[in-house]
Amino acid sequence: MARLGNWIAPHPHGIHIPAADIWVDPSRPVARALITHGHADHARGGHGQVWATPETLAIMECRYGPQHGIPVQYGETLVLGDVEVGFVPAGHVLGSAQIVLDHAGERIVVSGDYKRRPDPTCAGFEPVACDVFITEATFGLPVFRHPETRDEIDKLLTALRANPDRSVLVGAYALGKAQRVIAELRAMGHGDPIYIHGALQRLCDLYVEHGVELGDLRPASDASKEEMKGAIILAPPSALNDRWSRRLPDPITAMASGWMRVRQRGVQRNVELPIILSDHADWDELTRTLTEIAPREVWVTHGREDALVHWCETRQIKARALDLAGYEDEDD
């Protein structure tokens, strides 16, 4: 009896689909690539042809220059070689997709990175029944249970109200996290100007071009200390403790990341106000997703594979870990 999913081949540098002569999220340049989303641990320049959502192609062009891109809309199906390919929302960042592969009477879903929490900056995750579900496990340990988004964003607003002569400086990754923090602040009624580091400008502009409302954003480099008192300022994590931050009015240093659940991570970055906000599924969301989809097999990658494989095996779900290299946690 043929092994389930024997028509795709996981390699350390990506997942190869010989029947379509194409790779999913390869970490090195290839002739033909399917890309789940724009983070650097999944997308890179130099491919011959790239199939991705229009938003992901726009992000790749913003980051890596012109692409030989072929846009695929959510819900659209195309045929590549002997494989039917579809893109379904993953709920991770703008344009992120699960890639649905149908061949030889089997369906395999490569989920990329995903989350189940509502996010005003991207389309929500859509579960797809399948034979094999390839899942991430970034937060694949029971200790990782993310708090309510609204409660975490309220920490920023509470700190701002309590310190009107200071600023709140939030470290947030440039793609996805920064825009989500801004959009969540707006959803909670924060209409004041938000100041941003120059490294965030291009991707914030791209989000706005794709219909994501971010409100009044201003370059922090153009503002005086007086203007930024009582304001929220966003910057990449690398700027939290460098010379750039010294010009800010007595900043309260915050960091928005799922890793802020680990106290030592915040201490290492001199974070005064940890904000636990992730663009990945937590343990409960990972296990709920597998229960909901009910695949015949689960392949686990990108994180804490062992615990999730064990969870599957205790429920009589066949599971294995994939050894994919080059997966850095850029986005959390």
TrEMBL record:
InterPro entries: MBL, Metallo-B-lactamas, RibonucZ/Hydroxyglut_hydro, Xnuc_lig_assoc. GO terms for molecular function: exonuclease activity; ligase activity. Its EC number is 3.1.-.-. SUPFAM superfamilies: Metallo-hydrolase/oxidoreductase (SSF56281). The keyword DNA repair does not apply. It is an enzyme of class 3 (hydrolase). Keywords: Exonuclease, Hydrolase, Ligase, Nuclease. Residues 9-173 form the Metallo-beta-lactamase domain. Gene3D superfamilies: 3.40.50.10890, Ribonuclease Z/Hydroxyacylglutathione hydrolase-like (3.60.15.10). The keyword Transmembrane does not apply. PANTHER family: BLL1145 PROTEIN, CLEAVAGE AND POLYADENYLATION SPECIFICITY FACTOR FAMILY MEMBER. This is Ligase-associated DNA damage response exonuclease. It comes from Sphingomonas colocasiae. The lineage of its organism: Bacteria, Pseudomonadati, Pseudomonadota, Alphaproteobacteria, Sphingomonadales.
